[in-house]
Amino acid sequence: MEPEEPEETAGAAWGRLGEEPLGGRGLLELAVASGVVAWATWAALLMPGFRRVPLRLQVPYQPSGPRQVANALALLRGRAGKTVDLGSGDGRLVIEAYKQGLRPAVGYELNPWLLCLSNYRAWKAGYHGKVSFLKKDLWKVNLSDCHNVIVFLAPSVKPPLATKLLAELPDEARVVAGRFPFSSWTPTSTLGQGLEQVWAYDMKEVRRAAQSEAQSNGS
Questions:
Q1: Mode of pairing for the β-strands spanning 148-151 and 174-178
Q2: Residue span of the signal peptide, if any (predicted)?
Q3: Is the peptide bond before 21 cis (omega within 30 degrees of 0)?
Q4: How many whole angstroms separate alpha carbon 98 and alpha carbon 195?
Q5: In a domain, 202, yes or no
Q6: 113-158: pLDDT as tens digits
Q7: Distance from the CA of 34 to the CA of which of 27, 74, 77, 111 falls in 20 to 30 A?
Q8: Are 135 and 113 in contact (CB under 8 A)?
Q9: What is the count of structural domains for the chain?
Q10: Is the CB of residue 186 less than 8 Å from the CB of residue 205?
């Protein structure tokens, strides 16, 4: 029997991939390949914006799901004033905030690739020039003029971020946290369950609770 041509051998192998179990070695090779692809994506697209941020304050990009976005915006319904998303990723929360009438709507993001994606999404939605995505470090932005703050960040950054928000936000501001709550704050309201749960915090109430606790500890 004559040997198969290289192209036929490769094609036969791909054909058998869905029919036969991969086995231990095959699974290992697949895992390694997947890991290389994931690392390459991270290095090319997501790492650039993190290089200037201290390790403990870095937050990997994870897009918000439709229900998470809907729940977050539901807790801001009927409000007014400047709305910002800290670490705005692909921009979907900012765009939805603008659709809901929260204006100006601004996203702060360091990663240039995600900023490009955000601006593309805004253009596709017909909001080019109406929403803003700024390449700024959220730790260095002054938030004193913000009345609605959206925070979909990791638990590790919540304690220092809570300190920043307390120091800068006006009493009328509301903070909406997704995925993880501020453990030291008591939410005004919450919506959803599991990964889709979001929490709303009114700064006036947060400050009042902080002052009461400080007085109790001082007495």
A1: parallel
A2: none
A3: no
A4: 24
A5: yes
A6: 999 999 999 999 999 999 999 999 999 999 999 999 999 998 989 9
A7: 111
A8: no
A9: 1
A10: yes
